[in-house]
């Protein structure tokens, strides 16, 4: 036989495109085969998100968003804590705003994606639409999380460098498979839903320039778009077959010159064996995750100084990963004097100054009076950044704060592993405490406790029990 007629092993068994592999995984996932620790962590991630939705209730961004969605008409889908019903896609957008609005929600470190903020509204709304069980909702959430985080991880931090927000860009694919699973799509339809979702992937980082509110809509937009993609695929709508690896696929189109750094193998590596939910980092402070290590380093120095505030500090240098500079360090003038709370949450100078002066960074530091505090702004004006050559980003969001004192001393503290990351995780008990702190901003303790018990028992209940609880107005 001619050698040319005998294909190599690779040619004889070609690798499937990524979308069908993710579809097979998402539809084949069985909740009883998901490790108990992963299921328990997933429920605590849901609990964290719900607590944040309640904490967001009275903020202007929530009120404005709800008015906008109500202007489009009412429906049958629950908006958490508001006692209002919207069309399913509008409710998903609104619930995404509530979960993500305070930028206090979880982050998958390698994917640099707030996955729960999109997957939870999609799974929650999708389960309500088809009257799913709690187990079905939880399984859809886990499947969507595993897909979205991997799709984000492939870019290896590149989306941010180009100006895209991975939560919207990658989240829509996880939402598409979560919606497909709940709506009973076939594997072929679920692969097609991902192809359709490619034209819906979106999320610009331009909000960083002036503290605009647009980042808050990215997760919920991904949720509604994912459900739409699944609905179209179910009815036979045709989408691209290679949304990830195609010539104009996700990474070719959204990474530009950084496409070469994308590692497509990360999209499917360890599916069903290595659980990305275990890699999700929980936020201990309400700010961009990139700032957390530097914030904790500043608090440590506050204690080292005996709580003496900024007295005697001549200059502050903060070492940060190169990949986060555009997000939390530049433009320097804006970061030193944030115009609003959202800009403050992405400001290394402001957050570090708060830590040095107050020994904390909480939601209170985002109030208008706090943003204008003269002593904080004066110290923020002394904060400069440097690129950290020793950073292990994106595995860890490192940070080091160095103080140059007026008397010539130099003090430094480094956080090599950010608190709340997979290598330094918050416990489930920590997450429950965070949930109560946030939920109690809007709810009495008894109702917050009832919601907690319902979420942690979700796989044994009808999802409608949770929908009914969260539909009640505050």
TrEMBL record:
Gene3D superfamilies documented for this protein: 2-methylcitrate dehydratase PrpD
InterPro entries, per the entry: MmgE/PrpD_sf, MmgE/PrpD_sf_1, MmgE/PrpD_sf_2, MmgE_PrpD, MmgE_PrpD_C, MmgE_PrpD_N
Pfam family, one: MmgE_PrpD_C
Start and end residues of each MmgE/PrpD N-terminal domain: 21-257
Taxonomic superkingdom: Bacteria
Start and end residues of each MmgE/PrpD C-terminal domain: 286-459
Gene Ontology MF terms: lyase activity
Family: Belongs to the PrpD family.
Name of this protein: 2-methylcitrate dehydratase
Protein species of origin: Pandoraea thiooxydans
Source lineage: Bacteria, Pseudomonadati, Pseudomonadota, Betaproteobacteria, Burkholderiales
């Amino acid at each position: 036989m001619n050698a040319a007629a005998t294909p190599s092993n690779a040619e004889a068994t070609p690798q499937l495109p990524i979308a069908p592999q993710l579809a097979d995984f998402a539809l084949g996932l069985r909740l009883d085969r998901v490790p108990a620790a992963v299921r328990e962590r997933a429920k605590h991630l849901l609990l964290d998100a719900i607590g944040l939705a309640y904490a967001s209730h009275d903020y202007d961004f929530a009120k404005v968003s709800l008015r906008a969605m109500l202007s489009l008409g009412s429906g049958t889908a629950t908006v958490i804590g508001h006692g209002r019903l919207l069309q399913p896609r509008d409710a998903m957008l609104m619930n995404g705003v509530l979960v993500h609005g305070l930028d206090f929600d979880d982050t998958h470190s390698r994917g640099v994606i707030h996955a729960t903020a999109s997957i939870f509204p999609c799974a929650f709304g999708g389960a309500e639409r088809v009257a799913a069980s709690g187990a079905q909702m939880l399984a859809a959430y886990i499947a969507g999380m595993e897909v979205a985080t991997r799709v984000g991880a492939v870019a290896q931090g590149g989306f941010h460098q180009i100006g895209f927000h991975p939560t919207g860009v990658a989240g829509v694919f996880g939402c598409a498979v979560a919606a497909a699973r709940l709506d009973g799509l076939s594997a072929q339809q679920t692969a097609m839903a991902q192809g359709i979702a490619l034209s819906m992937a979106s999320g610009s980082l331009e909000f960083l320039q002036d503290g605009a509110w647009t980042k808050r809509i990215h997760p919920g937009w991904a949720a509604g778009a994912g459900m739409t993609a699944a609905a179209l695929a179910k009815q036979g709508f045709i989408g691209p077959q290679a949304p990830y690896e195609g010539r104009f696929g996700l990474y070719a189109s959204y990474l530009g010159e950084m496409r070469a750094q994308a590692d497509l193998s990360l999209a499917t590596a360890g599916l069903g064996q290595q659980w990305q939910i275990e890699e999700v980092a929980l936020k201990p402070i309400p700010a961009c995750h990139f700032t957390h290590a530097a914030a904790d380093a500043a608090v440590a120095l506050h204690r080292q100084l005996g709580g003496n505030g900024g007295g005697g500090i001549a200059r502050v240098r903060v070492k940060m990963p190169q990949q986060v500079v555009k997000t939390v360090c530049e433009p320097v003038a804006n970061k030193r004097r944030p115009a609003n709370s959202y800009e403050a949450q992405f400001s290394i100078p402001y957050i570090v100054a708060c830590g040095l002066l107050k020994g904390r960074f909480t939601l209170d530091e985002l109030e208008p009076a706090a943003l204008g505090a003269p002593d904080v702004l004066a110290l923020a004006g002394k904060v400069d950044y440097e690129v950290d050559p020793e950073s292990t980003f994106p595995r860890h969001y490192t940070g080091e704060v160095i103080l140059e004192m007026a008397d010539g001393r130099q003090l430094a503290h480094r956080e090599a592993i950010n608190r709340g990351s997979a290598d330094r995780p918050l416990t489930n008990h920590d997450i429950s405490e965070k949930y109560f702190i946030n939920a109690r901003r809007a709810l009495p303790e008894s109702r917050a406790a009832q919601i907690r018990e319902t979420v942690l028992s979700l796989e044994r209940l009808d999802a409608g029990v949770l929908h009914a609880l969260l539909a009640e107005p505050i």
